[in-house]
């Protein structure tokens, strides 16, 4: 099995398909590299696609030390995969936990990114929700440790995932089965180390304002916790576009793969063509008669 090695020795499993400009996929908390299969099959026609498993998600290593899990380590793991494959710059695409990771890579390592694609990013990110979110994370982690089968079943049927189950019962069942087959320990450690302790998006506004990489933000219109964060990113990343997929929940890349792929492909083609991105300041309205200098 191919593995990249992080700077602390943790091995990260990855898969590749296609050739050309690199496109790195970073999965969500309830998924793994298999979550990107509809994208790997489609985008490998045009790009060199790489999907990897985060630490804590076998066949990547599952370190037992909780200190080995953090948002910073998740960010650096993405770069470690690029380093292992000798890739200088890539399109970096993430969903949910992976979307946070993509954003952090863009803020900290902009020279490694051709573009950023940030999907379903924002749950628990509002400042007023922080304590509630952290309490939920600790409760979830404890449930993962005590009864993973039951806890993973509940996680797969959350309020922003029922949309997927209603649209595509077979696809959702496969997703739920894959989640149930993952590591209880890895998920508990990731929940406590990465999810629970990650900074709020509102704390990252200054970093967002420094991003000058083409950025695409995507969210489902029924993914309530991610709607306001999507607007926050749009308003503060001057080179960003925002797509809201209708009648859609959180797992938009597998819930609506055709719509997701179409929007991402159009974005990537625009990046590859080198077309302009920075928002015209005149579009920031201060009144119906125009903007003020």
Brief digest:
With 293 residues, the chain is an alpha/beta fold. It is 44% helix and 15% strand.
Q: How are the secondary structure elements laid out?
A:
Elements: E1 3-5, E2 11-17, E3 22-26, H1 37-43, E4 48-52, H2 71-84, E5 90-95, H3 97-108, E6 113-119, H4 130-146, H5 148-156, H6 162-167, H7 169-180, H8 184-195, H9 205-210, E7 215-220, H10 224-236, E8 240-245, H11 252-255, H12 257-272
Parallel strand pairs: 3-4, 3-5, 5-6, 6-7, 7-8
Antiparallel strand pairs: 1-2, 2-4
Describe this structure in words.
This protein has 293 residues and is an alpha/beta fold. The protein contains 12 helices and 8 strands. The chain is globular, with a radius of gyration of 18 Å. It starts with a strand and ends in a 21-residue tail after the last helix. The model has no long low-confidence stretch (mean pLDDT 95).
What distance separates the N and C termini?
57 Å
Sheet having the most strands = 8 strands, mixed
Radius of gyration: 18 Å
DSSP summary, beta strand count? 8
Q: Unreliable segments (pLDDT under 50, ≥5 consecutive)? A: none
Order of helices and strands: EEEHEHEHEHHHHHHEHEHH
Class from secondary-structure proportions = alpha/beta
* Percent helix: 40-55%
- Mean pLDDT over the residues: 95
Strand content: 15-25%
Categorize the overall geometry: globular
Query: What's the tally of helices?
Result: 12
Strand order of the largest sheet: 1-2-4-3-5-6-7-8
Descriptive keywords:
44% helix; 293 residues; alpha/beta; eight-stranded mixed beta sheet; 15% strand; 8 strands; single chain
């Amino acid at each position: 099995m191919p593995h990249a090695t992080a700077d602390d020795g943790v091995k990260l499993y990855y898969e590749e398909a296609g050739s050309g400009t690199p496109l790195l996929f970073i999965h969500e908390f309830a998924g793994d590299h298999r979550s990107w299969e509809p994208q790997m099959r489609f985008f490998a026609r045009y790009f060199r696609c790489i999907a990897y498993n985060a630490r804590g998600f076998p066949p990547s290593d599952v370190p037992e030390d909780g200190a080995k899990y953090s948002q910073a380590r998740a960010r650096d793991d993405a770069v470690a995969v690029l380093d292992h494959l000798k890739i200088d710059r890539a399109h970096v695409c993430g969903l949910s936990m992976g979307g946070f990771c993509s954003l952090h890579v863009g803020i900290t390592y902009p020279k490694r990114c051709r573009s950023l694609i940030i999907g379903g990013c924002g749950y628990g990110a509002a400042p007023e929700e922080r304590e509630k979110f952290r309490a939920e994370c600790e409760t979830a982690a404890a449930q993962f440790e005590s009864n993973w089968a039951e806890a993973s079943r509940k996680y797969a049927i959350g309020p922003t995932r029922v949309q997927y189950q209603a649209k595509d019962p077979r696809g959702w069942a496969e997703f739920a089965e894959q989640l149930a087959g993952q590591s209880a320990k890895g998920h508990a450690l990731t929940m406590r180390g990465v999810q629970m302790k990650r900074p709020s998006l509102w704390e990252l506004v200054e970093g967002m304002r420094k991003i000058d990489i083409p950025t695409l933000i995507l969210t489902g219109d029924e993914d309530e916790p991610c709607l306001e964060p999507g607007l926050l990113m749009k308003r503060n990343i001057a080179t960003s576009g925002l797509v809201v997929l209708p009648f859609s929940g959180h797992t938009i890349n597998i819930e609506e793969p055709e719509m997701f792929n179409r929007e991402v492909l159009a974005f990537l083609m625009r990046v590859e063509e080198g077309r302009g991105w920075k928002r015209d300041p005149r579009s920031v309205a201060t009144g119906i008669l125009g903007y003020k200098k």
